[in-house]
Amino acid sequence: MALDLSNATILAPENVSGPEKKAVMMLIEEVEKRTQLRWKISTTRPAARESNPSDSTAYPSNPQPLIVVGTADKLRHVLPSYSQEIPNRSIDSRPEGYRIVLSKRHSAPALFVIGNDSRGVLFGVGHLLRILNLKTGSVVAPDGLNIATSPKYPLRGHQLGYRPKTNSYDAWDVDQWEQYIRDLVVFGCNAIELIPPRSDDAAWSPHFHHPPMEMMIEMSRLADSYGLDVWIWYPAMDKDYSDPHTVAFALKEWGEVFQKLPRVDVVFVPGGDPGHTQPKYLMHLLEEQKRNLNRYHPKAQMWVSPQSFNREWLDEFLGLLKKQHPAWLNGVVFG
User: Fold this and answer.
1) How many helices (H) and strands (E) does the chain have?
2) Residue 331: in which H helix or E strand, if any?
3) What would be the CATH architecture of the domain defined by 3-149?
4) pLDDT tens string for the chain (335 positions)?
5) DSSP state of 302
6) Of 160, 180, 167, nearest to 206 (Cα)?
7) pTM of this prediction?
8) Of all helices (H) and strands (E), which one includes residue 114?
9) Where are the domains of the chain?
10) Strand partners, 69
11) Are 3-149 and 157-332 equal in CATH topology?
C-alpha cells in the first residue's frame, strides 16, 4: 500500500552544510509548487516518537509520517532507534551515493533519504522528487521503496551559456536560472560550465536582465549554494599570444573575471573554435593563467583541448605533453 505523505514532517539534522539545507528547501518548495502543501521542518524527532513503539498510547491512531533527510553520519545521532534504516557508511561509501528507504517497522512510518555525503543528499532528494506522486493537496510515495545507488561517472556537467546564441538562456533572470539548476540537479548534474563576458558571441542581447558579468557572478553563486562544481569555458581569442603585451592584457582581463566569481573549480580553454593559437604559445599562456586563477581560487584546475589543431599542431601539442609533463595542467578534454 502506498504511503500518504500529505501531512508529513521533514526531519533534518541541525548544523549541516549549505548544500544539504538547499536540498531540504528544494524538496519543500518543489512539492509545494505542485501540491499547494508546505511541509514543516523539525530538527529533532517529535517527542511521541521517542516513546516505546510497542506502547500504542504514545502514538495517535493515524501517526504523522516522517521524511528524514541527511547524511548517514548525522542521522545516526538524530535517530538511533532507526539503525536498520541508517547503515554504517562503510557499507557503501561511494561519493554522491544515496539510499531512499521506506520504513514501517515503527508505529510512525518514515521515509529516509540518506546521502553518503552532501551531494548524495542533494541527488537523493532529486530522485525522490521524480518518484513521488504529486497532485493538488496530495503527496504519495510508492510502497516498498528501497533504493541504493551511486553515480557511474564522476563528472556530469552541462554548459549554461548566458549569451545570444541559444534563443532562450539570454532571456532568463536569476530565478529562472535557479529553477533550471534545480531541474539539472534532480537528474544528477553535479557541474555547470559558464561562459565569460567576452566570447565569440555578440557582447549584448536585448533580452538580458543583467550584464553578462553580473549574471555570471549570480550563476557561480547559485551553483556554489547547491554544492555544484563551476567550470568556465574560456576561449583564448586574441590575435597573437606570442606577443608579451597580448599575454599581459589577457592576464588582466581573465584575472578580473576570476576575482569576481564566488566559485571556480575548473577553467577549460579550447584550442580552437574560437581561437587559433600555436600550442607552444597557448601552453605558455595557460601556465600563466593557471597562476592567475589560483590567486583567487587556490584549488581550481586548468584544462585544455586540442580541438581545431591541424596535424602539425597536434603533434606539437602531444610532444609538449610528453616532454614537459606540465604539472600545472590538470586535464585534457577530447571530443
Assistant:
1) 8, 15
2) strand 331-332
3) 2-Layer Sandwich (3.30)
4) 789 999 999 999 998 989 999 999 999 999 999 999 999 999 877 654 444 444 433 334 557 899 999 999 899 888 887 777 887 655 568 999 999 999 988 778 999 999 999 999 999 999 999 999 999 999 999 999 999 999 999 999 999 999 998 888 999 999 999 999 999 999 999 999 999 999 999 999 999 999 999 999 999 999 999 999 999 999 999 999 999 999 999 999 999 999 999 999 999 999 999 999 999 999 999 999 999 999 999 999 999 999 999 999 999 999 999 999 999 999 999 97
5) E
6) 167
7) 0.92
8) strand 110-115
9) 3-149, 157-332
10) 113
11) no
Q: Pick from 290, 298, 243: which is nearest to 268 by CA?
A: 290
Alpha carbon distance 93, 73 (integer Å): 11
Is 158 in contact with 184 (CB distance < 8 Å)?
yes
For residue 89, which phi and psi values (nearest 5 degrees)?
-55, -30
Structure-block grid coordinates of residue 263: 566559485
C-alpha cell at 326: 606540465
- Beta-sheet strand order (sheet of 66-71): 40-42, 9-11, 66-71, 110-115, 98-103, 146-149
Spell out the residues 6+ positions from residue 310 whose beta carbon is closer than 8 angstroms to its own.
none
- Environment class of 116 (CB within 10 Å of its CB; exposed 0-12, middle 13-18, buried 19+): buried
CATH superfamily of 157-332: Glycosidases (3.20.20.80)
